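Field log, afternoon session.

UNIT: design team B
ACTIVITY: writing a sequence onto a fixed backbone
BACKBONE:
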């Protein structure tokens, strides 16, 4: 279906082809070969969902969740995610866990969120590992456990979840759930800097600016440190801005 021309897909949609309806909705939503049209995508996803397409039900939930193509309605999004998750749609299961965790469209239930994220983490879902780490760190839905928090954060980072790079580096830097390891801390912070993370830019900038004075086994590099602080400040990081002002740069 993805290789078909737009005109062919539109003809199949007129014939009521369910796969074509979903494909056209997808293309309209992302603007692939056609002008972005959230409202058009919403109507098509709704049509396909009513005909029993579970992926469309999940995507319809996203429309309500983000308020794209329709007015934001978190309660409706939750209901659709729950419906799709009952049919084993893993994306919907993940979003359902988020809704339980933050109380989006339903009452907050960290216990249910923890259970779902744990099951997804066992399947190797990096984003679930990330949230599981934070839940262990905060003691939400489970007992606070810094070692478990570190374990899941590192798994998430190793699986390529970019948000986990920063916090894996941070945990190594401060010894949260793991022994302090400057080399590993720098490695993960550098990976986060490559993703233009302003917090990582600020932390690493300070490390290079101060060198050994920061109780870290690293050679001082003021030029690189200032460069990172400037990048962080450019993204609106207040700590980086304050340090640059202090340095009169």
């Amino acid at each position: 279906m993805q290789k078909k021309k737009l005109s062919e897909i539109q003809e199949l949609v007129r014939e009521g082809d369910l796969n074509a309806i979903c494909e056209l909705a997808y293309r309209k939503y992302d603007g692939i070969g056609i002008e972005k049209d959230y409202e058009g995508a919403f109507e098509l996803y709704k049509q396909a969902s009513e005909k029993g397409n579970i992926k469309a039900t999940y995507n319809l939930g996203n429309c309500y969740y983000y308020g794209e193509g329709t007015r934001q309605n978190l309660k409706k999004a939750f209901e659709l995610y729950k419906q799709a998750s009952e049919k084993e749609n893993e994306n919907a299961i993940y979003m359902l866990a988020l809704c339980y965790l933050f109380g989006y469209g339903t009452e907050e239930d960290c216990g249910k969120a923890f259970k779902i994220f744990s099951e997804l983490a066992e399947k190797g879902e990096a984003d679930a590992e990330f949230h599981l780490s934070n839940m262990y760190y905060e003691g939400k839905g489970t007992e606070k456990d810094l070692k478990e928090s570190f374990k899941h954060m590192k798994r998430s980072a190793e699986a390529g979840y970019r948000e986990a790079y920063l916090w894996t580096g941070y945990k190594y830097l401060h010894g949260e759930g793991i022994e302090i390891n400057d080399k590993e801390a720098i490695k993960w912070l550098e990976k986060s800097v490559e993703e233009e993370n302003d917090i990582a830019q600020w932390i690493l900038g300070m490390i290079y600016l101060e060198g050994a004075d920061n109780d870290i086994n690293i050679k001082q590099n003021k030029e690189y440190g200032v460069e990172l602080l400037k990048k962080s400040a450019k993204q609106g990081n207040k700590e980086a801005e304050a340090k640059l002002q202090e340095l009169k740069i």
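LOG NOTE: DSSP finds 14 helices and no strands in the chain.
NEXT ACTIVITY: expression trials, pending approval
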